[in-house]
Design brief:
Order of helices and strands: HHHHHHH
Structural class: mainly alpha
Oligomer: single chain
Distance between the termini: 125 Å
Helix content: 40-55%
Largest sheet: none
Number of strands: 0
Strand content: under 5%
Length: 161
């Protein structure tokens, strides 16, 4: 048959687990018995495990929100903020302009300069021949050969040939 679990007493748990009065009271409120605390002690290879007294404090803090024997930190006094209307207006204006320039930085329209008027737009048929608008001239015709080169150099006109 199996071994009967050993019944430990609180004084023995206090000595083995390094507990103080507050730790014992917290362990009792968490419904721990001395046997459970003694079994929860970390072994030499269990470096990751908290000591029993620290574990009891952590569990008590999680459940009840405070630890017995520790004085709670005083609540910080509320800070009164003084509003400077002019400084707030300047700050809002700065934010507005930053946002404005960020939204309009990719604007591809040409910028107008002071003192200059916009140039009038020419009609598509006015001025040069339609083939010159497309970047095609008489000199680029491969079938004209040397005649195209003479015309491009200003020699013969295409009507003379």
């Amino acid at each position: 048959m199996g071994k009967k679990p050993q019944q430990h007493s609180w004084p023995e748990a206090i000595r083995l687990c390094w507990l103080n009065r507050n730790d014992v009271e917290m362990a009792k409120r968490l419904d721990f018995r001395p046997d459970a605390l003694i079994r929860a002690r970390p072994g030499p290879k269990q470096k990751w495990k908290l000591p029993v007294n620290e574990r009891v404090r952590e569990l008590y803090r999680e459940r009840f929100g405070h630890v017995l024997g520790e004085k709670p930190l005083p609540a910080p006094a509320p800070v009164e903020v003084e509003f400077d209307r002019e400084a707030m207006r300047r700050f809002e204006e700065e934010l507005y302009w930053e946002d404005y320039w960020a939204r309009n930085e990719d604007d591809t329209r040409p910028k107008k300069r002071k003192g200059r008027q916009a140039k009038p737009v020419k009609a598509p048929g006015a001025g040069a021949a339609p083939c010159q608008h497309q970047g095609i001239g008489n000199h680029s015709d491969p079938f004209l050969g040397e005649l195209a080169l003479d015309v491009a150099a200003g020699g013969l006109s295409p009507s003379e040939s």
